[in-house]
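Students often ask what a holo structure prediction actually looks like on paper. The answer is less mysterious than it sounds. You provide the chain, you provide the ligand, and the output is a string of discrete structure tokens encoding the 3D arrangement of the protein together with iron/sulfur cluster.
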Amino acid sequence: MSDRVLSPWHSAWRHLRDRPAAGPIPPVDEAGIRDLAARLDAAGIRRLGRGLALHALDPGSCGGCELELRAIRDVAYDLARFGLRFVDSPRQADVLLVTGPVTRTLQPALQRAWEAAPDPRFVVAIGDCAIDGGVFKGSYAVAGGVDTTLPVDLVIRGCPPTPGEVLEGLLMLLEANAARPG
Amino acid sequence: MSLAAAIRATPGIPCRPWLRHVLSPEQWRALGAEPNLALLAMWGDSHAVHALLREPAGMLAVTVTVADGRYPALSPWRPGARLFERAIHDLWGHAATDATDERPWLDHGRWDVTAPLAARPPSRIGAAPPVTFLAADETLDQVPIGPFAGGIAEAGQFRLFTRGPEIVQMESRLGYLHKGIPALMRGKSPRAASRFAARLAGDASVAHSIAFARAAEAACDTPPPPRALALRAVMAELERIASHLADIDALAQAGGAPLAGTPCQRHREAILRAAQRGFSHRLMMDSVVPGGIATDLAADGEDALRIAIAALGHELPAIARLCEVLARRLDGVAVATPIAAAALATGGPAGRASGADSDLRRSPGYRPYQDLNVSPVREQAGDAAARLLVLLAELRDSARMVRTLLAELPDGEIIAALPQASGEGFGWAEGPRGDIWTWLRLDGGQIANVFLRDPGWLTLPLLEAAMAGTDLSDWAAGRASFGLSHAGMDL
Ligand code: SF4
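The corresponding structure tokens follow.
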């Protein structure tokens, strides 16, 4: 794994990793989304034009995490205003959003998709399963979390994480990306 | 008297609410050849294979003993048996004699063991056979798709055999998402195992949880309290509404009429947020548990749900109008004939759009639906437009049911304690994509064996049949119109 997990990354990663898995989930409301947008504006990120292309990969999810990814892509969250967009191929992707545990059967395909993404590529493990296999840990058919197969830059907890939580994670990614030298 | 009725009259093993009858190989084969019996599910056990069948007069659960690792195939008569037989071989190691298809289905050769659910799973020796597709005609062109196909989609592999612009044949290979869920559920209490039922298919989490809970409650002969039943139905209808909205949206995107999808996205999000307020989870995962429900409806959640449902009800006519353009585009796309749907016993919106009279909410004694007058929605055309119309009509009906249920919520307990029982039971629920069946056997309060039958098992073969003769440019819309969950059937 490269040395790109630098400080802004690291704090973002820790923040999400250390969040308790259960407990009250802050409601995602319009005000919350406006607030995220304002933070982006303040950081001048949108002006810098450093959007990120996201590509979703499901190496074994139950489909719940995909439902929430679809929700953030939909009108209610309107990713475009954050400079985030989904792309259909890993070749066009800056960020791979990986949901679910990695089944043994999909391990090679996941590895190939990662290899197809241009460097530097960020890997976000979305949901408890993607972190360590979640409830499916220990099965004969499951390799484990995404880190069994790919270097993971950011994890977002939850089963599934809410769209607000995913968005917050992606925002940290944007900020970290903008702070990256070069 | 039909053969099924004759078998039902014989003694059997209690498998509440029915009996399970052990058949001779000859009787089993004869059942397969009976024209009026629909095959709903087939699954394995250590030394046996079970099947769940339905005839107009009632349900029939049967078993055949496996001898020398083999049992008689049903696939020569029942096209729907094909995928089950392939999966039974992969998971339990039982081979179906005279099967129409002996290729692996779930096992791609990447597990350390073979037949992981067998009494003693053997270690894998040698490589698994590569994934093969069978073209009917070697001169056809091939379009390979998957296992990762772009978009936010589940992994699965498809091969389209085409001639010019037309799809002649479609073949699928799934199993990529297999997580070994039945094995993970074994040895656990129903309560602990229900976390897996809730995570078999995220888009039918509530429905699978209900079917599983009902199977456990049947095995323990312990009904849940009325308030739990009513709130389960609220959750199930909310899940159906969210899923139908997502499916209409996906269909609108794939069918080139994205405007029809936009209000669906908005309302789906509103429903999920209301579900979060009411049941503390947007997808209501783990809210349904064996014996009842885990947490009562939150006080302010009831209002949130009423508001979201009222807003949806208000806009449904406008959504239906936007869908008219879409329906015209989908006219004649991916036709699944009523004959094909009946031969496969496909239920759910896909089956109902091809004339199937199947909705488990109308099954006898299914509370609280028996008092809700579920409208039988059916179309005959079997094309993508018919499936869209069914989804739209069901949205209206589900919204009405949520309103009624909330207005008449019974008071009282929300959970009954299940005894540490031994026994077998069936449970079922009508999920957003169709009929869900769960069978389980408890041994001293722990799961000894379990099978969760997602509707996808019988929807995928219908989708494949419908694709024959469809224009390649209609593939995405045709496929979206079937709303298939790979995770649910991959186990
Ligand atoms: S984290 Fe939860 S929702 Fe996401 S794939 Fe795993 S079980 Fe499904």
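The beta strands of chain A are 52-57, 84-86, 95-99, 102-103, 122-126, 142-144, 154-156.
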